[in-house]
Amino acid sequence: MKIQLIFSYDGSKFQGSQTQPHENGVEDALKRALSHVGIFSKITSSGRTDKDVHANNQSTSVECGEHFSDLERLKSLINRHARPHINVKFIRRVSDDFQPRFDAISRSYRYVISHDEFSVFRANYELFLPKFDVKKANELLSLFIGRHDFSSFMKVGSDTKNPVREIYKAFCYEYKNKTIIVFKANGFLRAQVRLMVAAVLKGLKHKNANELIKKQLENQAIFTRMPAPAQGLYLNRVHYF
């Protein structure tokens, strides 16, 4: 039977989510945990995240025997070997034709910025910056909403054939002493979220930021090519319904 796993992981402990030559990717660690409970099939995930990017709810599927009928017990067994850097939150049985990547209708990310005094213990999980104008940031974020060719907002060397994506939501809000930036789209290009965050943060220092970001969106000029640091980024959810 085929099962879907929803799990979180600490991206700072891995060299990215995909299998790596030295077996230090998220999928490598999950594969080892699964093998301990007797599951050896290929792992198929909804997508990949770069080194130091975290996930709250990554989605993946594997094939396993029918004898794994007690999914709560299976979750406990997997977590015994996956923790502390990976935590399986939920397991459900899915149809044999379920595809975590291609069946997803949208994905959402969050970027966490702390305005506290810098802490070495939180440096792998937040970007530390002074407080900024959230109203202005939301004005700049709104420029990304809609269907655009994001060729100028993807990592150089990306192998995508279609750079067009549709952004459904792009906004930020204050929570305690943090600013949380939220994106939801039908899909994202490699490093796209980090490049959009970088454009907004840089734009807060420019009077004509709206025009500069619009020109990059229209692929007429480059405002920024340096992505925001990876440690503040979280794959928040993969949506199927």
From TrEMBL:
Keyword 4Fe-4S part of the UniProt annotation: no
Entry's EC annotation: 5.4.99.12
Keyword Hydrolase attributed: no
Residues at the catalytic site: D50
Alphabetized UniProt keyword annotations: Isomerase, tRNA processing
Pfam family, one: PseudoU_synth_1
Domain Pseudouridine synthase I TruA alpha/beta, chain residue ranges per copy: 7-103, 143-240
Reaction equations catalysed: uridine(38/39/40) in tRNA = pseudouridine(38/39/40) in tRNA
UniProt GO MF annotations: RNA binding; tRNA pseudouridine(38-40) synthase activity
EC top class named in words: isomerase
Residue positions binding substrate: Y109
Entry superkingdom: Bacteria
GO terms classed as biological process: tRNA pseudouridine synthesis
Quaternary structure and partners: Homodimer.
Similarity comment text for this entry: Belongs to the tRNA pseudouridine synthase TruA family.
Role summary: Formation of pseudouridine at positions 38, 39 and 40 in the anticodon stem and loop of transfer RNAs.
HAMAP family: TruA
Name of the protein: tRNA pseudouridine synthase A
Originating organism: Campylobacter mucosalis CCUG 21559
Gene that encodes the chain: truA
